[in-house]
Amino acid sequence: MRFFAGFGVALYFLLTGGTPSQAQHLSTYGTPGLIDMPTAEVMPDGNLATTAFVMRDTNRNTVTFQILPRIYGSFRYSYIEDFNAGGTQSRYDRSFDIHYQIREETRRGPALAVGLRDFGGTGIYSGEYLVATKTFAERWKVTGGMGWGRLGLRNSFTNPFAALDSRFEVRPALNVVTGGQFNFSQWFRGPAALFGGVQYNVGNRLTLLAEYSSDTYPGETANIGFDASNPFNFGASYRFDNGLTLNGYYMYGSTLGLQLSYTLDPRKARAPGGQDAAAPALSSMQQVAAASWNLPPEQTAGDGPSTRDVLRSRLGDQGQRLVGYEVAGERATVEVENDKFHVSAQAIGRTARAMANTLHPSVKVFVITLRRQGLPITTAEIRRADLYNLENELDGAWATLARTSIRDEPSGLPTGTVEGAYPHLSYFLGPYGRLSFFDPDNPLRYEVGLAARATYVARPGLTFLGVVRQPVASTLADTTRVSNSVLPHVRSDWASYSQESNLQIGNLTAEYLWRPGPDLFARVTAGYLEEMYGGLSAELLWFPAESHLAFGAELNYVKQRDFDMLFGFQDYDVVTGHVSMYYDTPGDYHLQVDVGRYLAGDFGVTFGLDREFNNGFKVGAFATLTNVSSADFGEGSFDKGIRFEVPVSWFTGTSSKAKLRQVIRPVLRDGGARLNVANRLYEYTREERAGRIVGQWGRFYR
User: Fold this and answer.
1) Do residues 265 and 18 touch, judged by C-beta distance below 8 A?
2) Sign (positive/negative) of CA torsion 466, 471, 475, 480?
């Protein structure tokens, strides 16, 4: 049984514990539905669901995301035992769904929806549908629909769309040599069939279901002897307090099915916020002035600690490293590196409090500059009086924002550099883990071990980085497959890097970051840039402080590293680079478009769309189209995938800048492959730019 090895369950264990959502019932395909058949329902906007389903010889694992209020998308990874080669090989299949709710349910009318199931894969589950769902007497839901493809097989009839065009009457054969292509020529073509069912909510926990299925399971019937002659399915669903749902089914009169599913709202963290120590209370001006170490700016300290020393200590208690300090008249300028808060507005608020509780009352204006590894990014200017006057107002944070100046900070060296700020060494020694999905021989591979990471900032902007790993347990190398790619093997030899390495140098780089001018950022990185490539990378970014739009350009010359991941190189080298557009759309969405040359020498464009919630939880998808044909690309036809980014604070409730990231590709090939260089400037600077700071200013007083 591979029930707990599937992709859906892997994500379930990653994400469970978050606040469960009151979502619709999920079908065996991981989407709102009955048992095998879809309904016209959608999940609450922004919800994320994971599902694992198993029945005889079949395992389906699905993640579904409510992209827009009326649109959800799904990615599914399925396993069918002994399905291929005359019953001698099992089938691992990847598929995508999309569903659009045309009309919401009203008191007088049903919800209406249209959907595509497995619209871009090998087509094993390929089908389209139009469906309606209506609620009666609060507890009953009735669904009826019409399907095509796999949903148009049982008691089928001539396609009604044939009355519009005779081409709708026949469904063309599907070319599944490479898979991954959109099957436009098949959509809503060929015979149609009806399906339907009912759902009865016994209470808040128990739901009973019955459906008439239009799917005859033709491939399973022919290849593994599955009996789907009976069209009726029956099931029961029970929801636990933690949001986990357990479903049991009796299907097609011949088999039992079991399903686990979980739906969460990414907006609501697993652990409630506010687990940090409270922000320091603002001391009165009299208390600040009476401090023995506090003197007017024009006077110097005696034998005791200086004002700067006290401020530095207090900022350190708030996770802010003081790197620049200067007082001139009524203005005090501090430059800090935020080592704690993933919300920069909170870092600014904590810094302002420390300044108010430390600096002499004659200082009236606080100027706070945020830096990263010495790179100046953004400056906020706050009047001391506003900090005091608005703290206890109902909308004090936003009133403070209206009186705060947030601007670009293109200056170079820190103002009044603090002794000991540079050079600066930080390091990490501890466990690491890596996951690999969808190898044709094993759907889930892993590697765990020990990692050492050291970052040495020699001077503002100049950083040396080293990462060394020692695997302890790994299944990444447990494969006998050899790449059959006709392109240069820029990624498809990934298993060789695990098979031929022991101690691994992940990164060993020198990096310089600087500000060429207002709204401009620049980066040059040299060394072992990632585990497969070393060389030189240069980047320039134009990113106005308050703009939702940014443009960047990157150019790299790299050589492929030896499989042992130590100091040697192979013969392959390439010049690669892109120009990029970044745009934060209204709402939670972020668009990125990259145009340029990829590692295999192919030219093309990558489109990426992410939905990022205010707490930093991100779900996105990307696709790359290049001048490599689908035949030359191989299985999958083109590079694509989904990605997740979850702040550690989402799990713990305590502030941290750490994030968990995972990119899921249905298949890893050589076309459309891009260099994985660290600290690309847009993501590196984005959290400290004015647009993000303003959007999260509600945490200023926290």
Assistant:
1) yes
2) positive
* Contact by Cβ (8 Å): 64, 29: no
Rounded Cα–Cα distance for residues 166 and 184 (Å) = 16
pLDDT of residue 5: 42
Give the span between the Cα atoms of 324 and 258, in whole angstroms.
61
Handedness of CA 517, 518, 519, 521 (dihedral sign): positive
Q: What is the distance between the alpha carbons of residues 130 and 114, in angstroms, rounded to a whole number?
A: 5
Here the tokens at position 72 are 């959800």
How far apart are alpha carbons 357 and 284 in whole angstroms?
8
Mean pLDDT in consecutive groups of 10 residues from the start of the chain, 702 residues = 42 46 82 97 94 94 94 92 75 90 94 93 88 94 96 96 92 68 84 97 94 95 91 96 92 96 88 73 87 65 73 94 92 94 93 94 94 94 93 85 91 76 93 78 81 96 96 81 87 88 94 96 97 97 94 98 95 97 91 97 96 90 93 84 89 86 86 95 94 89 88
Length of the chain: 702
Q: Are 379 and 351 in contact (CB under 8 A)?
A: no
Q: Given this model, what pLDDT does residue 461 score?
A: 94
- Maximum alpha-carbon separation in the chain: 95
pTM beyond cutoff 0.90: no
| CA–CA distance, 597 with 576 (Å, rounded to integer) | 5
DSSP 33: B
**Dist CA 640 CA 622 (whole Å):** 6
Q: How far apart are CA 379 and CA 9, in angstroms?
A: 44
In whole angstroms, give the CA distance from residue 380 to residue 396. Answer: 17
| 333/326 Cα distance (integer angstroms) | 5
SS3 20: strand
β strands within 500-544, DSSP E: 504-514, 520-528, 533-542
Neighbours of 588 (CB within 10 A): 18
What pLDDT was estimated at residue 7? 41
CA 484 to chain centre: 30
- Bridging pattern class, strands 365-372 and 331-338: parallel
**Paired residues of 595 in beta bridges:** 579, 605
**8 A C-beta contact, residue 55 and residue 249:** yes
Q: Using an 8 Å Cβ cutoff, are 55 and 255 in contact? A: yes
Give the span between the Cα atoms of 68 and 113, in whole angstroms.
14
Class of domain 7-264: mainly beta
User: Cα(523)–Cα(373) distance, rounded to whole angstroms?
Assistant: 12
CB of 24 within 8 A of CB of 239?
no
Residue 160 token pair: 């009604």
Two structure tokens written together for 122: 């090998």
The token duo for 678 is 């660290």
Q: Nearest to residue 53, comparing CAs of 253, 229, 246, 199?
A: 246
Topology adopted by domain 285-421 = GMP Synthetase; Chain A, domain 3 (3.30.300)
Whole-number Cα distances in Å, 16 to 66, 259, 295, 446, 515: 17, 16, 53, 20, 42
Residue 85: enclosing H or E segment and its boundaries? none
Q: Confirm if 609 and 596 have CB atoms less than 8 A apart.
A: no
Q: What is the DSSP letter of 417?
A: B
Q: Where are the domains of the chain?
A: 7-264, 285-421, 424-459+461-692
Decide: 432 and 457 in contact? Cβ < 8 Å: no
Distance CA 186, CA 118 (A): 11
